[in-house]
Amino acid sequence: MKTIKSVPGRFFSAVRRSFRQFLALPLATVIGFVCLNALVYLADRSWSGGDAPAGFAWLGKLLGDRAALGGLLTTVASSIITVTSITFSLLLLAVQQGAAALTAQVTDQFMARRTNQFYFGYFVGLSVFVLMTLVTNTGFHRPVFGTTIALLLTTSALCLIIVMIYNTIDQMRPAQIIQFIHDRVLEARDEDLRLLAATRRTARADWPVAASIRARESGYVVRLDLPRIEEAVRRHARAAVEIEFDITVGTYRAVNDPLFQVRCRPGTTLDAGARESLVGETLKALTYDDGRDLQHDAAYGLHQLSTIAWTSVSTSKSNPSPGLSVIQALRDIIAHWSEDENQPLEDPSSCIVYADAAPIIATDALEAVIVVASESIQSQTLTEAVKTLAILLRHVGQPTADRLADVANRTLSSLGEHVLTRQLEAALEDLAKALTERGFIVVARAVSEASAELAASLGKLNSRSTRVPGTTS
Fold first, then answer.
1. How buried is residue 463: exposed, middle or buried, by Cβ count under 10 Å (0-12/13-18/19+)?
2. Burial of 64 (0-12, 13-18, 19+ CB in 10 A)
3. pTM, whole model, 2 decimals?
4. Which of 253, 291, 308 is nearest to 98 (CA)?
5. Nearest 5°: phi and psi at 253?
């Protein structure tokens, strides 16, 4: 099978992603400074020939002649460039240290913040403004207004450095990083809901599979062009064909990985030309990229939260604080999304079948935190996760409750690594009550029995790895 060449598409996708994630606001700020310089240049033409605008003669005397303006602008330009270089180097060093403490997700959230983008654009734009003003200082043009504005903006920039340093340090706190990702995940969910509202969840069981299509290139699928697929189905098969996707937005596909299936109504036969055209249009409706975008991919944010929790909770860092923050963020996300599962968005007439994977990924992320807590024996992290299961079980919808009950049942396998602290014992008791209230009697009984079995090891010298009486390590 011949691989589709999409280098130009990948390049433009990378450019769009870079502008969307960081470059747009800084470049817009720099362009704003350039436009401001052009306006100020026109205003400074009133000083040509040695004349002073009415009411501003004092300003010309204060700043001096052309030579004085040139010296002042040279000093300001060199100072602002030096300060900007040193400040940005220190900030990037702080970001690097934060990324080493947690994960590379720190860099992503730092770049995605609008305030940080504005800071970079402001300092670069100011440097450009001062340099352009310096260039216009000639024998026939005296940039008095330009120099005045440059001094005011430079003073503001020096004061802004203090704010920028504080914001950077504040953003490197794990709680702030996790909260930012949490907010972006909830915002990105809107993109999922748009796709869900225009598609169906389940395929028609009595419609046989006419073709199973595999990927012809590798990368992350970052966008689905639903109107293009619908138009292709309408043109070639009308209501006799449906497209069932095996993936969701954000999924990585290697060459020959499953992509989608073409299903036909019983008794309908697609000729070779129509099928080839339909498959080709559907493949073109998929946009590949080498990276994922948190702004439109909620699953990517969940992956980041899970990675942060795993890194910090494991013995690699042995820091329970970020893990606790991740658990709390996941609890809020699952609570929000449970409402969508109770009232699923769907278009029954759609010819596209698309799964809702984000809620499942959220509960899987919570399960991953529980697993890694057993590796580092962090009882406080496990306690918070068990509390989260109990809290959610009391109010989430049934699909979410089913998954949480399954997570609770699987969690019991890791209890042997822990000591039954008072907090953990109380959390397990509350979890058993919550499971009973939701009708998961078997799982509730298993939780109670596991807690009682672990309690039997209290007061004895047991193995660290298994808590089995009679051995030591």
1. middle
2. middle
3. 0.82
4. 308
5. -125, 130
Strands 209-214 and 286-289: what pairing?
Answer: unpaired
The token pair that represents 464 in the structure block: 């660290």
Residue 313 in contact with residue 37, Cβ under 8 Å? no
> Which class for 75: exposed (0-12), middle (13-18), buried (19 or more C-beta within 10 A)?
exposed
Contact 369, 323 (CB under 8 A): yes
Contact 215, 251 (CB under 8 A): no
What strand order describes the sheet that includes 352-353?
209-214, 258-264, 241-245, 352-353
Specify the DSSP class assigned to residue 4.
P
Q: What angle do CA 367, 371, 376 make, to 5 degrees?
A: 140
Mean pLDDT, consecutive 10-residue stretches, the chain (473 aa), reads 54 77 90 93 76 70 77 86 81 73 72 86 92 84 86 90 85 86 92 92 89 91 92 85 93 94 86 87 90 86 91 87 94 90 83 93 95 90 95 93 95 87 94 96 95 86 64 46
Cα dihedral 196/198/202/208 (nearest 10):
-140
